[in-house]
Amino acid sequence: MKAQAPTAHGQGLSSQARNLHWLLTNLVDEVPGIRSVAVVSSDGLLLLSSDPERVAGPPARPGDSDGPKGSSADLATIVSGLGSLTSGAAKLMDGGAVKQTMVAMEEGSLFVMSISDGSLLGVHATPDCDMSVIAYHMALFVGRAGHVLTPELRTELRKSMENVQ
């Protein structure tokens, strides 16, 4: 099942917030194999989601493999943890900043890409996805979103996610 495109969380969103929602909608709609997407702040809070109605919704049905079990918040937690783990590993190895992390699993793939302000873009994809296509479209999103993700916009997005709950 295809990830659900994000919806606006209210009429009061700024044009920059609406633009980020639009970019995320395009990522979900145009890239085959994407199950769910989350943008997570540097402190681990969910800012944008491809499934905003499940931010803190009921747990997924047993056997539901359309995304992490539970909610979009689960994907945000996984993305934040993986981002932290890989950043720590890069420091220990004197590897510089982590640009992208990819985890291939039997039943799917997880991609995490850094956004310029320390936020992270996470994508959970199907096992048969074209990894290079997903990575390319993630890089486009990061390039377009990174410069507008200001502290004020992060606060606005975080509040809009809280209002969905």
UniProtKB/TrEMBL annotation:
InterPro entries: Mycobact_SerProt_Inhib_Rv3364c (IPR053141), Roadblock/LAMTOR2_dom (IPR004942). Residues 21-125 form the Roadblock/LAMTOR2 domain. Residues 50-73 are annotated as: Disordered. It comes from the Bacteria. This is Roadblock/LAMTOR2 domain-containing protein. It comes from Streptomyces albospinus.
